Amino acid sequence: MTNTHPMPGLPVRGSKSGKPIMALFDLLGRSWSLGIIWQLSDGSPATFRQLQDRCETVSPTVLNKRLKELRACALVDHDGSGYRLTPLGRELFEMLHPFGAWSNTWSEALQEQQDS
Predict the structure, then answer these.
(1) Cα–Cα nearest to 19, from 29, 9, 5
(2) Mean pLDDT for all residues in the chain
(3) How far apart, in whole angstroms, are the C-alpha atoms of residue 109 and residue 42?
(4) Counting Cβ atoms within 10 Å, is residue 85 exposed (0-12), middle (13-18) or buried (19+)?
(5) What is the pLDDT at residue 11?
(6) What distance, in Å, lies between the first and last C-alpha atoms of the chain?
(7) What is the pTM of this model?
(8) 2 pLDDT exceeds 80?
(9) Burial 21-52 (b: 16+ CB within 10 A, else e)
(10) What integer pLDDT is reported at residue 1 of this predicted model?
């Protein structure tokens, strides 16, 4: 059985080395992977429908596929109340969170550049 999700030690998009960082970049580079992690970052569980509403334009097919991948990669889990980040998923989000503030600074700098 072949993996449908990136796994350390196996070739991934953009790399044949199997290095863990390349597998992570492949996973996070897939459409809606980061969005799902971001939407689950508040710690409260979300049902499939709630998560689809939070993600706005994601199709049910893509959301289902990404949730399966994120679960297989131990970043998201599902319990009786819904989907939530695992401890590894929360740790990853904590490392990604500063990008939110930086992206606002970047956006402002680009706007200033366009205005001048």
Answers:
(1) 9
(2) 92
(3) 28
(4) buried
(5) 80
(6) 56
(7) 0.86
(8) no
(9) ebbbebbbebebbbbbbbbbbeeebbeeeebb
(10) 39
